[in-house]
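Table S2 (continued). Query chain:
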Amino acid sequence: MRYLFVHQNFPGQFLHLVRHLTRQGDNEVVFISEPNSNAMPGVRRIFYKMPRGAAPETSPAAQEFEIATLRADMVANMARSLKDLGFVPDIIIGHHGWGELLNLPDVYPDVPMLGYLEFYYHTDRFDIGFDPEFPNDPVMYPRVRAKNAVNLIALNNHGWGQTPTLFQKSTYPAWAHDRITVLPEGVDLEACAPDRSLARKPFQLRGVTVRPTEKLVTYVSRDLEPYRGFHRMMRALPRILDARPDARVIIVGGDGVSYGAKLASGTWREILLGEIGERLDLSRVHFVGKLDYRSYADLLKRSDAHLYLTYPFVASWSLREALATGCAIVGSRTAPVEEFITHGRNGLLVPFHDSDALADSVLELLENTTLAQKLRRAARKDAERTLSMSDYLANYEALIERTIAAA
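Corresponding output:
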Protein backbone atom coordinates (compact mmCIF):
# COMPACT_ATOMS: atom_id res chain seq x y z
CA MET A 1 0.00 0.00 0.00
CA ARG A 2 0.91 3.63 -0.42
CA TYR A 3 0.77 5.79 2.69
CA LEU A 4 1.07 9.57 2.97
CA PHE A 5 1.78 10.80 6.50
CA VAL A 6 1.78 14.46 7.56
CA HIS A 7 3.08 15.97 10.80
CA GLN A 8 5.19 19.10 11.15
CA ASN A 9 7.57 17.30 13.56
CA PHE A 10 8.46 13.93 12.01
CA PRO A 11 7.46 11.31 13.11
CA GLY A 12 5.13 12.80 15.73
CA GLN A 13 2.54 10.39 17.10
CA PHE A 14 3.15 8.02 14.18
CA LEU A 15 6.57 6.65 15.15
CA HIS A 16 5.46 3.10 15.93
CA LEU A 17 3.00 2.81 13.06
CA VAL A 18 5.46 4.11 10.46
CA ARG A 19 8.21 1.83 11.76
CA HIS A 20 5.80 -1.13 11.62
CA LEU A 21 4.68 -0.35 8.06
CA THR A 22 8.22 0.05 6.72
CA ARG A 23 9.32 -3.23 8.33
CA GLN A 24 6.58 -5.06 6.45
CA GLY A 25 8.60 -4.40 3.31
CA ASP A 26 5.77 -4.04 0.80
CA ASN A 27 4.54 -0.54 1.65
CA GLU A 28 5.53 2.81 0.19
CA VAL A 29 5.65 5.41 2.94
CA VAL A 30 5.97 9.13 2.22
CA PHE A 31 6.06 11.63 5.09
CA ILE A 32 5.58 15.41 4.69
CA SER A 33 7.01 17.49 7.54
CA GLU A 34 9.22 20.42 8.37
CA PRO A 35 12.93 19.59 8.29
CA ASN A 36 14.47 17.92 11.34
CA SER A 37 17.30 15.49 12.03
CA ASN A 38 15.09 12.47 12.72
CA ALA A 39 15.47 9.60 10.27
CA MET A 40 13.84 6.24 9.68
CA PRO A 41 14.80 3.59 7.12
CA GLY A 42 12.24 3.07 4.39
CA VAL A 43 10.58 6.47 4.73
CA ARG A 44 10.68 9.00 1.92
CA ARG A 45 10.64 12.41 3.55
CA ILE A 46 9.30 15.55 1.87
CA PHE A 47 10.11 18.85 3.57
CA TYR A 48 8.24 22.13 3.64
CA LYS A 49 9.36 25.38 5.22
CA MET A 50 7.04 27.96 6.70
CA PRO A 51 7.31 31.20 4.72
CA ARG A 52 6.61 33.36 7.76
CA GLY A 53 4.80 33.50 11.07
CA ALA A 54 1.53 35.22 11.77
CA ALA A 55 1.33 38.82 10.58
CA PRO A 56 1.66 41.38 13.41
CA GLU A 57 -1.60 43.04 12.41
CA THR A 58 -3.57 39.79 12.64
CA SER A 59 -5.92 39.58 15.62
CA PRO A 60 -4.28 37.61 18.46
CA ALA A 61 -7.25 35.24 18.43
CA ALA A 62 -6.68 34.47 14.74
CA GLN A 63 -2.90 34.18 14.68
CA GLU A 64 -2.82 30.44 15.42
CA PHE A 65 -5.36 29.82 12.67
CA GLU A 66 -3.36 31.96 10.25
CA ILE A 67 -0.28 29.81 10.90
CA ALA A 68 -2.41 26.67 10.43
CA THR A 69 -3.62 27.89 7.03
CA LEU A 70 -0.05 28.68 6.00
CA ARG A 71 0.90 25.12 6.90
CA ALA A 72 -2.09 23.83 4.95
CA ASP A 73 -0.96 25.76 1.86
CA MET A 74 2.63 24.51 2.10
CA VAL A 75 1.59 20.87 2.60
CA ALA A 76 -0.90 21.06 -0.28
CA ASN A 77 1.86 22.42 -2.54
CA MET A 78 4.11 19.49 -1.60
CA ALA A 79 1.27 17.06 -2.20
CA ARG A 80 0.58 18.52 -5.66
CA SER A 81 4.21 17.99 -6.55
CA LEU A 82 3.95 14.37 -5.39
CA LYS A 83 0.81 13.89 -7.44
CA ASP A 84 2.46 15.37 -10.52
CA LEU A 85 5.22 12.79 -10.05
CA GLY A 86 2.62 10.02 -10.00
CA PHE A 87 2.28 9.40 -6.27
CA VAL A 88 -1.32 8.81 -5.22
CA PRO A 89 -1.65 7.34 -1.72
CA ASP A 90 -4.18 4.75 -0.64
CA ILE A 91 -4.70 6.71 2.57
CA ILE A 92 -3.57 9.98 4.18
CA ILE A 93 -2.75 9.92 7.90
CA GLY A 94 -1.85 13.01 9.89
CA HIS A 95 -2.43 15.23 12.92
CA HIS A 96 -5.33 17.64 12.47
CA GLY A 97 -4.15 20.07 15.12
CA TRP A 98 -1.49 21.79 13.03
CA GLY A 99 -3.79 22.53 10.08
CA GLU A 100 -1.61 20.62 7.64
CA LEU A 101 -4.41 18.34 6.42
CA LEU A 102 -6.95 21.07 5.70
CA ASN A 103 -6.34 21.44 1.96
CA LEU A 104 -5.37 17.89 1.07
CA PRO A 105 -8.94 16.96 0.00
CA ASP A 106 -8.46 19.51 -2.80
CA VAL A 107 -5.36 17.67 -4.00
CA TYR A 108 -6.54 14.10 -3.42
CA PRO A 109 -10.36 14.30 -3.38
CA ASP A 110 -10.81 10.55 -3.68
CA VAL A 111 -8.21 9.47 -1.11
CA PRO A 112 -9.53 8.58 2.39
CA MET A 113 -8.09 10.49 5.32
CA LEU A 114 -7.56 9.43 8.93
CA GLY A 115 -6.72 12.35 11.20
CA TYR A 116 -5.41 12.41 14.75
CA LEU A 117 -7.77 14.50 16.92
CA GLU A 118 -5.98 15.41 20.12
CA PHE A 119 -8.14 17.87 22.07
CA TYR A 120 -11.14 20.17 21.67
CA TYR A 121 -10.83 23.36 23.71
CA HIS A 122 -13.47 24.90 26.00
CA THR A 123 -13.59 28.14 27.96
CA ASP A 124 -15.66 26.71 30.81
CA ARG A 125 -14.28 23.24 31.59
CA PHE A 126 -11.34 20.85 31.47
CA ASP A 127 -8.02 22.72 31.67
CA ILE A 128 -9.41 26.27 31.49
CA GLY A 129 -10.18 27.56 34.97
CA PHE A 130 -9.15 24.27 36.57
CA ASP A 131 -6.35 25.68 38.72
CA PRO A 132 -7.51 28.42 41.13
CA GLU A 133 -3.92 29.55 41.43
CA PHE A 134 -4.23 30.86 37.86
CA PRO A 135 -7.72 32.42 37.57
CA ASN A 136 -9.50 32.71 34.25
CA ASP A 137 -8.72 35.75 32.16
CA PRO A 138 -11.74 36.42 29.92
CA VAL A 139 -9.44 38.28 27.55
CA MET A 140 -8.13 34.84 26.56
CA TYR A 141 -11.53 33.35 25.73
CA PRO A 142 -11.59 34.43 22.06
CA ARG A 143 -8.17 32.87 21.57
CA VAL A 144 -9.28 29.63 23.24
CA ARG A 145 -12.41 29.42 21.07
CA ALA A 146 -10.40 30.16 17.95
CA LYS A 147 -8.08 27.23 18.71
CA ASN A 148 -10.96 25.00 17.58
CA ALA A 149 -11.15 26.51 14.10
CA VAL A 150 -8.93 23.78 12.65
CA ASN A 151 -10.79 21.12 14.65
CA LEU A 152 -14.12 22.25 13.24
CA ILE A 153 -12.97 22.39 9.63
CA ALA A 154 -11.33 19.00 10.01
CA LEU A 155 -14.53 17.49 11.38
CA ASN A 156 -16.46 18.89 8.42
CA ASN A 157 -13.95 17.69 5.84
CA HIS A 158 -14.33 14.19 4.52
CA GLY A 159 -12.49 11.48 6.40
CA TRP A 160 -12.42 10.06 9.88
CA GLY A 161 -10.67 10.82 13.14
CA GLN A 162 -8.99 8.85 15.88
CA THR A 163 -7.96 9.78 19.40
CA PRO A 164 -6.13 7.80 22.10
CA THR A 165 -8.50 8.03 25.09
CA LEU A 166 -12.16 8.23 26.01
CA PHE A 167 -11.42 11.47 27.85
CA GLN A 168 -10.01 13.11 24.73
CA LYS A 169 -13.01 11.98 22.70
CA SER A 170 -15.33 13.44 25.36
CA THR A 171 -13.89 16.91 24.79
CA TYR A 172 -15.31 16.95 21.24
CA PRO A 173 -18.92 17.93 20.45
CA ALA A 174 -21.40 15.06 20.69
CA TRP A 175 -22.34 15.45 17.02
CA ALA A 176 -18.78 14.50 16.06
CA HIS A 177 -18.42 11.37 18.20
CA ASP A 178 -19.61 8.96 15.50
CA ARG A 179 -16.67 10.03 13.34
CA ILE A 180 -14.01 9.60 16.05
CA THR A 181 -12.58 6.20 16.97
CA VAL A 182 -10.80 5.68 20.28
CA LEU A 183 -7.53 3.94 19.48
CA PRO A 184 -5.55 3.34 22.71
CA GLU A 185 -1.85 3.91 22.19
CA GLY A 186 0.59 1.10 22.88
CA VAL A 187 3.80 0.87 24.86
CA ASP A 188 6.97 -1.09 24.21
CA LEU A 189 6.32 -3.61 26.97
CA GLU A 190 9.77 -5.14 26.59
CA ALA A 191 11.68 -1.86 26.90
CA CYS A 192 9.44 -0.93 29.83
CA ALA A 193 9.57 -4.31 31.57
CA PRO A 194 9.93 -4.04 35.37
CA ASP A 195 13.42 -4.64 36.78
CA ARG A 196 13.59 -4.24 40.53
CA SER A 197 17.16 -5.54 40.55
CA LEU A 198 18.12 -1.91 39.91
CA ALA A 199 17.02 -1.16 43.47
CA ARG A 200 19.46 -3.71 44.89
CA LYS A 201 22.59 -1.95 43.70
CA PRO A 202 23.79 1.66 43.44
CA PHE A 203 21.82 3.46 40.74
CA GLN A 204 23.63 6.24 38.89
CA LEU A 205 22.20 8.95 36.68
CA ARG A 206 23.98 12.13 35.58
CA GLY A 207 26.19 12.34 38.60
CA VAL A 208 23.46 11.29 41.04
CA THR A 209 23.94 8.06 43.00
CA VAL A 210 20.98 6.41 44.73
CA ARG A 211 22.11 3.75 47.18
CA PRO A 212 20.15 0.51 47.70
CA THR A 213 19.29 1.70 51.22
CA GLU A 214 17.69 4.88 49.86
CA LYS A 215 14.14 5.42 48.60
CA LEU A 216 13.74 7.08 45.20
CA VAL A 217 10.82 9.37 44.38
CA THR A 218 10.48 10.27 40.69
CA TYR A 219 8.63 12.87 38.66
CA VAL A 220 8.71 13.17 34.87
CA SER A 221 7.35 15.82 32.52
CA ARG A 222 8.43 17.16 29.13
CA ASP A 223 8.63 20.56 30.79
CA LEU A 224 8.34 21.49 34.45
CA GLU A 225 5.09 23.47 34.47
CA PRO A 226 1.72 23.82 36.23
CA TYR A 227 -0.25 21.84 33.60
CA ARG A 228 1.62 18.76 34.79
CA GLY A 229 1.36 19.66 38.46
CA PHE A 230 4.97 20.66 38.93
CA HIS A 231 4.04 23.32 41.49
CA ARG A 232 1.91 20.86 43.50
CA MET A 233 4.65 18.24 43.42
CA MET A 234 7.31 20.67 44.59
CA ARG A 235 5.17 21.80 47.54
CA ALA A 236 4.82 18.18 48.64
CA LEU A 237 8.57 17.60 48.81
CA PRO A 238 9.39 19.28 52.16
CA ARG A 239 7.06 16.89 54.04
CA ILE A 240 8.35 13.86 52.14
CA LEU A 241 12.00 14.69 52.70
CA ASP A 242 11.50 15.64 56.37
CA ALA A 243 9.69 12.37 57.07
CA ARG A 244 12.13 10.21 55.10
CA PRO A 245 15.79 11.15 55.55
CA ASP A 246 16.55 8.14 53.34
CA ALA A 247 14.63 9.54 50.34
CA ARG A 248 15.98 11.14 47.19
CA VAL A 249 13.95 12.86 44.49
CA ILE A 250 14.87 12.86 40.80
CA ILE A 251 12.94 15.30 38.61
CA VAL A 252 13.01 14.92 34.82
CA GLY A 253 11.99 17.70 32.45
CA GLY A 254 13.02 20.86 30.68
CA ASP A 255 12.58 24.47 31.70
CA GLY A 256 10.31 25.47 28.83
CA VAL A 257 6.52 25.72 28.75
CA SER A 258 4.75 23.15 26.60
CA TYR A 259 1.22 23.97 27.77
CA GLY A 260 -0.40 27.07 29.16
CA ALA A 261 0.74 30.67 29.26
CA LYS A 262 4.38 31.49 28.66
CA LEU A 263 6.32 33.13 31.46
CA ALA A 264 7.45 36.71 30.99
CA SER A 265 10.82 35.73 32.43
CA GLY A 266 12.49 32.93 34.33
CA THR A 267 11.31 29.34 34.70
CA TRP A 268 8.82 27.50 36.91
CA ARG A 269 11.74 25.67 38.48
CA GLU A 270 13.27 28.97 39.56
CA ILE A 271 9.90 30.24 40.80
CA LEU A 272 9.21 27.17 42.94
CA LEU A 273 12.74 26.97 44.30
CA GLY A 274 12.41 30.62 45.22
CA GLU A 275 9.16 29.83 47.04
CA ILE A 276 10.15 26.69 48.96
CA GLY A 277 13.88 26.20 48.38
CA GLU A 278 14.78 27.07 51.98
CA ARG A 279 12.51 24.24 53.18
CA LEU A 280 14.18 21.64 50.96
CA ASP A 281 17.30 19.59 51.45
CA LEU A 282 18.57 20.34 47.96
CA SER A 283 21.32 17.75 48.31
CA ARG A 284 18.53 15.18 47.90
CA VAL A 285 16.52 16.89 45.13
CA HIS A 286 18.03 16.41 41.68
CA PHE A 287 16.94 18.15 38.49
CA VAL A 288 18.39 16.09 35.65
CA GLY A 289 16.82 17.81 32.63
CA LYS A 290 15.69 15.68 29.69
CA LEU A 291 16.96 12.12 29.35
CA ASP A 292 17.64 9.66 26.58
CA TYR A 293 15.04 6.92 26.48
CA ARG A 294 17.12 4.17 28.07
CA SER A 295 18.12 6.32 31.03
CA TYR A 296 14.52 7.42 31.45
CA ALA A 297 13.26 3.81 31.36
CA ASP A 298 15.87 2.71 33.89
CA LEU A 299 14.84 5.57 36.18
CA LEU A 300 11.22 4.37 36.16
CA LYS A 301 12.39 0.83 36.92
CA ARG A 302 14.36 2.04 39.94
CA SER A 303 11.60 4.32 41.25
CA ASP A 304 10.02 3.53 44.62
CA ALA A 305 7.22 6.08 44.20
CA HIS A 306 6.38 7.82 40.93
CA LEU A 307 4.31 11.01 40.75
CA TYR A 308 2.09 11.80 37.78
CA LEU A 309 -0.13 14.89 37.90
CA THR A 310 -2.02 16.68 35.17
CA TYR A 311 -4.80 19.15 34.56
CA PRO A 312 -7.84 17.67 32.74
CA PHE A 313 -5.86 17.59 29.53
CA VAL A 314 -4.06 15.09 27.30
CA ALA A 315 -2.36 12.33 29.31
CA SER A 316 1.39 11.98 28.75
CA TRP A 317 3.03 8.92 27.25
CA SER A 318 5.07 8.79 30.46
CA LEU A 319 1.96 7.70 32.39
CA ARG A 320 1.53 4.69 30.12
CA GLU A 321 5.23 3.88 30.36
CA ALA A 322 5.19 4.15 34.15
CA LEU A 323 2.30 1.69 34.28
CA ALA A 324 4.11 -0.70 31.95
CA THR A 325 7.24 -0.46 34.07
CA GLY A 326 5.24 -1.43 37.14
CA CYS A 327 5.79 1.83 38.96
CA ALA A 328 4.04 2.47 42.26
CA ILE A 329 2.20 5.58 41.06
CA VAL A 330 0.57 8.45 42.89
CA GLY A 331 -1.57 10.28 40.36
CA SER A 332 -3.94 13.21 40.33
CA ARG A 333 -7.64 12.49 40.59
CA THR A 334 -8.34 14.03 37.20
CA ALA A 335 -10.24 12.44 34.31
CA PRO A 336 -7.23 11.65 32.08
CA VAL A 337 -5.49 9.82 34.92
CA GLU A 338 -8.62 8.08 36.19
CA GLU A 339 -8.96 6.45 32.78
CA PHE A 340 -5.72 4.58 33.52
CA ILE A 341 -5.59 4.31 37.32
CA THR A 342 -8.15 2.98 39.78
CA HIS A 343 -7.39 4.13 43.31
CA GLY A 344 -6.07 1.35 45.51
CA ARG A 345 -5.91 -1.20 42.71
CA ASN A 346 -3.10 -0.16 40.33
CA GLY A 347 -2.10 3.16 41.87
CA LEU A 348 -3.13 5.84 44.34
CA LEU A 349 -5.09 8.96 43.41
CA VAL A 350 -5.14 12.29 45.24
CA PRO A 351 -6.83 15.63 44.56
CA PHE A 352 -4.65 17.60 42.15
CA HIS A 353 -4.64 20.70 44.35
CA ASP A 354 -3.76 18.95 47.63
CA SER A 355 0.01 18.78 48.10
CA ASP A 356 -0.39 17.43 51.63
CA ALA A 357 -2.45 14.48 50.35
CA LEU A 358 0.18 13.92 47.68
CA ALA A 359 2.92 13.82 50.31
CA ASP A 360 0.88 11.48 52.52
CA SER A 361 0.33 9.02 49.66
CA VAL A 362 3.99 9.01 48.67
CA LEU A 363 4.98 8.38 52.28
CA GLU A 364 2.43 5.56 52.46
CA LEU A 365 4.03 3.86 49.45
CA LEU A 366 7.55 4.28 50.86
CA GLU A 367 6.45 2.78 54.19
CA ASN A 368 4.02 0.10 53.04
CA THR A 369 6.03 -2.10 50.69
CA THR A 370 3.24 -4.69 50.54
CA LEU A 371 0.85 -2.10 49.13
CA ALA A 372 3.51 -0.79 46.75
CA GLN A 373 4.18 -4.29 45.41
CA LYS A 374 0.46 -4.94 44.94
CA LEU A 375 0.07 -1.71 42.94
CA ARG A 376 3.15 -2.48 40.88
CA ARG A 377 1.90 -5.91 39.88
CA ALA A 378 -1.54 -4.59 38.97
CA ALA A 379 -0.07 -1.70 36.95
CA ARG A 380 2.05 -4.05 34.88
CA LYS A 381 -0.80 -6.52 34.42
CA ASP A 382 -3.10 -3.75 33.19
CA ALA A 383 -0.43 -2.52 30.80
CA GLU A 384 -0.02 -5.99 29.36
CA ARG A 385 -3.79 -6.19 28.88
CA THR A 386 -4.51 -2.70 27.51
CA LEU A 387 -1.24 -1.15 26.30
CA SER A 388 0.24 -3.90 24.14
CA MET A 389 2.11 -2.44 21.18
CA SER A 390 1.18 -5.40 18.97
CA ASP A 391 -2.52 -4.94 19.78
CA TYR A 392 -2.23 -1.21 19.13
CA LEU A 393 -0.66 -1.76 15.71
CA ALA A 394 -3.17 -4.46 14.77
CA ASN A 395 -6.05 -2.20 15.78
CA TYR A 396 -4.49 0.69 13.85
CA GLU A 397 -4.23 -1.40 10.69
CA ALA A 398 -7.83 -2.57 11.11
CA LEU A 399 -8.95 1.06 11.46
CA ILE A 400 -7.02 1.98 8.31
CA GLU A 401 -8.76 -0.84 6.43
CA ARG A 402 -12.19 0.31 7.66
CA THR A 403 -11.42 3.91 6.70
CA ILE A 404 -10.43 2.88 3.18
CA ALA A 405 -13.47 0.61 2.83
CA ALA A 406 -15.83 3.41 3.93
CA ALA A 407 -14.42 5.97 1.47
